[in-house]
Amino acid sequence: MPTGLVIRAASVSDAGALADFVNSAFRGDGSKAGWTTEADLLDGQRIDADRMLETIASPGNVILLHELDGLLVACVHLQQTGGGCYLGMLTVQPTRQGRGLGRQLLETAERWAVEHWSSRSMYMTVIAQRPELIAWYERRGYRRTGDRKPFPYGDERFGLPRRPDLVFDVLRKPLASAD
Asked: What architecture (CATH level 2) is domain 5-174?
């Protein structure tokens, strides 16, 4: 872990800045400095401050922040789902991508889910038109389940699609027990 890296749970006071951080990492020209941009697939926002606030305040949810020397550099959302855990919004500042921070954040999230919720598996949804991102998760033990979820067309809170065929693949990974 780099010196000066602090991992903490987001609080409601983080909601606005966190929404701005996530949006800047996935949408718009600034997101193109990294490889995880969605700017070629979607315009608009990825999340708004109200939905971020609602997520942070909801029981069974946590957003883990990675701060380096006091600056937000990465985050991930976890949601408890029975014996499993949903992982979403894994975000690394575009100019810091490709240095192992995303892998480290993913490993931290998996440990957190096991230690705090005794989660036995982690699952996520990834836009199917993002084969490079799906391959990244597959190299970390996630597998496509064969399930797909529709993209929420018509709901601008999730962005403005630039193509008509967006769909989510569901990926899952068993987690090691805390025992």
From this structure: 3-Layer(aba) Sandwich (3.40)
* Whether pTM exceeds 0.85: yes
Based on its alpha-carbon atoms, the radius of gyration of the chain, rounded to whole angstroms, reads: 15
The H or E element that residue 78 is part of is strand 71-81
Strand 84-92 relative to strand 121-127, pairing: parallel
How far is the C-alpha of 143 from the C-alpha of 108, rounded, in Å? 19
Extents of the domains making up the chain: 5-174
Helices and strands in the chain, H and E counts: 4, 9
Q: 28-83 pLDDT, tens per residue?
A: 777 777 777 777 888 888 888 999 999 999 999 999 999 988 899 999 999 999 88
